[in-house]
Write a structure and sequence with these properties.
The protein is an alpha+beta fold. The protein has 12 helices and 24 strands. The protein starts with 14 loop residues before the first strand and ends with a strand. InterPro entries: HATPase_C_sf.
Length: 484
Amino acid sequence: MAEASRGYKGKALVQYSDGLEEEDALRVYRFQVLLPSGVSTSLTLHNPGEEMLVRDLLLSVKRELNNASVGGGRMPEIQWDDNIFLTDLLDEKITDKIKLSNFDTKSTNILRLHDEKGEPVSTFENMWDLTPQPDLVQELPAEYSTESALVDLTDNALQALWSNGIGERKLIRITLVKEKIVIFDTGRGMDGSDANSICKWGTMGSSNHRVFRQKGIGGKAPYLLPFFGMFGYGGTIASMHLGRIAIVSSKTKESRKVFTLHLSREALLEKAGSKNSEHTWMTAGGVRDPSEEERLLSPHQSFTQVEICGLKKHLEADRLLGFLKDVYFPYIQYDEDIESMNTRNPVEFEVNGVNLAEVQEGEVTVTNLHSSNGPDFIWHLKFTEKTAASCQAHARLKCVYFPIVKGKESIDSILEKLRNDGYEMKENFDNFSRVSIRRLGRLLPDARWGPLPFMEAKYRKGHKAEFFRRCCKRVKCFVGKLNI
């Protein structure tokens, strides 16, 4: 198994798994060598021994490059002289011998080659092997909208930072500029190690988030446990639905470098449609130092940034403020802390520099402002399916009453306020959504239900029956749903 730092058994930091198993009688080392010309080449060594002279390894690299050139590839210009040397991605310089026991035999290890010809490049062709299922990009469900894609990426960011330690900043910052959107979080980050590989972010079906799904089971209301882990497609689906190009930059606390992954929708679809496709997708990546801004935003020195260019649909920053606050309201401001009676801000959410905790827009915020101040009416439900593998689900139902204020229905006032704020509300008092659903604290915006059976008055004739029916229509149920 690849290690996360050289502090344990001396393993190299950057390795990505290709699923190949080591044979008992054969030690095979696989390397991806990043060249100073900005390309990379693969190298496989069979039973090379515990150590190997760097000059012998470089001869093998040169032989691979010559073979690629004979096959029609371009031979990169490299100064093969005494000044050439290797580094691992911990910046450890290797000039004489390479100790192969520091590297893994079940993963692909990355080395950088330097010829001291000039300034080193930071981006390399064919650095990462994502091997996706490209048809997933072409066959997204019809209801998968731009907003759904943005929420999926924000879910990833929220889950990544939720495990931050005490005193470590929890920030999600979304920046929208013309045809580009940037999503930055101060989560645990990624590198090239097998456990935290940035490859898994881009490889469909390899998301680490599925592993954490079990953490979303249990707990107490309002179930602020953002371990969604539903689909496991990685960030490719969402980012390629939003735009044409995505650049993912990430850093862990253990690494001194930022690792980058470059995605192109055109390249993916071209590979998917190729008759000669070998069902692999090599994509560019890079290594760089963290910027000063990144250091300031994340004092604990781990983060992930997703930059998407060539947006397919124009996004309005003003509309995103209310929409994202609706979806992540209890993570932005939690008003139900009975012990302290104070509002908590579990996560810093920013959109174009605006703190969402200060935003007074959005359906949830407006609805809360118009609800009554009476005692809460709450049900806690537990569902159990008695099968061979018993399954459980938990939910909390909180019913809120919206009274008449100054002769006007509060629900009518809510709808009027939302329309004035630019929201396209086609509902009225009679068909206004009476049920709002959150899964692990995150709103499901498309789940707009009518009243549940217990919310409807029993049918009776007469004046009192009409009165009770009207009163029941002033009730809205907020469902907090926990993982199954």
